[in-house]
Specification:
Layout (H helix, E strand, L loop, with lengths): L10 E2 L8 E2 L1 H58 L2 H12 L1 H4 L3 H8 L11 H16 L5 H30 L5 H16 L28
Antiparallel strand pairs: 1-2
Helix pairs in contact: 2-5, 5-6, 5-7, 6-7
């Protein structure tokens, strides 16, 4: 005697079929399994989307933070540059330092080792400021493009004005003295060479300037 499987069995063996065929209950189980796999795939894709969106948001936030930090740094530099005492030191370098450098005692004070009295040598205040700016630029504390756009020409001009002073200071102290100012001057001159006409966007049409005093001031241009 042969025993027959129940009618609702998962697998039913047909007399003419070489392989078992799936019954109704089996099909339901397969469908549930497929649905579960699809749900898992969708869930995984959803998790990936959430992670990607979170990462993108974090990148945007970091960019905003960096932009805010750069803005704060530039504003702080502007504030410091406008300091009354520092501006007086800049004027001293431009107007009086060349004449003061003709005094041998003045030069000797620069050449001597040790402390240089910045009350008598206001040029030291300017050297220190440029040294600090060069340090900030070298370590990417401030954006170089923004800084050089604002202070690049000033840096190059004052390097020329202060070069004789710095040469005397380095006689005994070595080339490490104010090396970050030197780094800043190198960067500034490279930037000026690559932007000989400034940084006005090419698509912006420049405004013409009337110069009614050009003829009268012709002798000043010589």
């Amino acid at each position: 005697m042969k025993w027959l499987a129940p009618a609702d069995a998962t697998v039913v063996r047909s007399a003419n079929a070489p392989y078992p065929r799936v019954g109704v209950a089996g099909l339901g189980a397969i469908r549930m399994l497929a649905l579960s796999e699809n749900l898992n795939t969708i869930a995984a894709m959803g998790t990936f989307v959430v992670i990607a969106a979170t990462a993108a948001a974090a990148v945007v936030q970091l960019r905003h933070m960096r932009a805010n930090n750069q803005l704060a740094a530039i504003l702080a530099l502007y504030h410091e540059f406008g300091d009354k005492d520092l501006q007086e030191a800049f004027r001293f370098v431009q107007q009086y330092l060349p004449q003061r450098m003709t005094d041998q005692n003045f030069r000797q004070e620069l050449a001597a080792r040790g402390f240089i009295d910045n009350r008598q040598h206001l040029e030291i205040e300017v050297l220190n400021w440029f040294e600090q700016m060069g340090t900030l630029l070298k370590h990417d504390v401030v954006d170089s493009a923004i800084f050089l756009d604002i202070f690049g020409r000033l840096t190059s001009v004052y390097w020329d004005l202060l070069e004789p002073t710095l040469a005397i200071i380095r006689r005994r102290r070595g080339e490490s003295q104010y090396q970050n100012f030197e780094y800043l001057a190198i960067r500034a001159r490279k930037w000026l060479a690559s932007h000989p006409h400034g940084t006005m966007p090419k698509e912006v049409q420049r405004l013409g300037l009337a110069d009614p005093w050009l003829a009268a001031d012709a002798n000043l241009m010589q």
